[in-house]
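Input record (one chain):
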Amino acid sequence: MKRIVFIISIVILLGIGWAFTVSDFLSEKSKENYQEQLITDADNYFKEGLYQRAINNYKEYLNNNQSEEICKKLINAYDKRLAEDDRITSDYISSMESITAAYEKNEAFVDKLADLYHKSKKYEKEYQCLSKAMKNGIDSENIKKRTNEVRYMNKISPLAYSDVKGPSNGEYVVTYNEYMITFSEAGKSSRSLYEYMSLANNNGDRIYTTDKDSRLISGKGVVLGIFDFKILEDAGVYSQGLVPVKNNGKYSYYDEFAKKAFGDFDYAGCFYNGKAAVKNNGVWYLINTKGEKVGDEYKDIVLSETGSYMSNDVMIASTKEGTYTIYNNKLEEKANVTCSEIGKTSNNGLIAFKNNNKWGFVNEEGKIVIEPQYDNAKSFSYGLAAVYSKGKWGFIDKNNEVVIDYKFKDTDSDAAYYFNSNGSCCVGTDDNNENEDVKLQLLSLIIGIKND
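The corresponding structure, as predicted from the sequence alone:
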């Protein structure tokens, strides 16, 4: 009896198992048929011009299945629908983000997403999309070109000016309608006008000259000292308790109370690590904070934009004609560069130099990185360098590729300066320039500086 019960139980279990198997088979078959029907219906909707209904079907299918071919159909439907109603842009972008995440190496998908970002003015996301594609192995010239184009998209400030100092701490001091103002970040300018204004130090301390007097004022607005004459010629950066000021054609150093400390130099830079570079009777040398000469004499010392003899822990100076020496922060020789001129020390180590009437670039070890080939050049700043060729200035990257076209005019002095950390640079241009005597405007990179 027990044996019969056991056999019956086995038969029942087998029957249940078969029932479940058949049920699962029918269920899967039903799902498969449903998925196929989604696509069939979607294709028909597309043919009838019902693009949103086609989009909904394609998306539902893709929620459960991966298919590059259906992704292409979805994109085609989105394009048709977008032409009818651009309110679907954000939904389209969201779908394309999912598609490019699933198919990272599909260049056409990346292109489409980048296009959507661009049309929506989401330039930062466009750049991230393109640069990520390159990291994922899409190494085409098209993607490289598009990445550079968006990375270096720029705009020109409508304000024009005739002189520039800096940048210092991301800020330029410029002359505007005979008064001085500051430009910073993406072309933001100060509201106050001054007869003269020096570059600020890291704390924001600087000299201001109004129609009444000249004052050394801290970054917090505290008047540190009032000069007994108006500063209109030149002044350097206040550092280590001293600031170089030009008056009656000569430079002297003044303390924080605006009292003369020492000096009567042809030129004077700001102090750094207890030393400053000065020039007298055609000879350059370093002095300490007491005004005493220290170290060797030089034919030339290349000062930074802030007037420091040292920048990026490098000093560049010449002791003989045709050669410049690169020194480390201990003033030990690192390398010699054969050249007639050399640019300012840069923030990333690529320095412009002139040899045989052409300009190229060397690194801090004196090795030539870009052979001399330009009519003029500035050292690299934040990955870009201004170069001059065929009567115009443009900008190159570290690969010696032109990333901002030659379109900036030459002036009596310069027509391209150094980029600041916010992605702005002074250039010579006629854009929106109503005053023929005013030559310079501010170029700003739309997505800023990228160092990756």
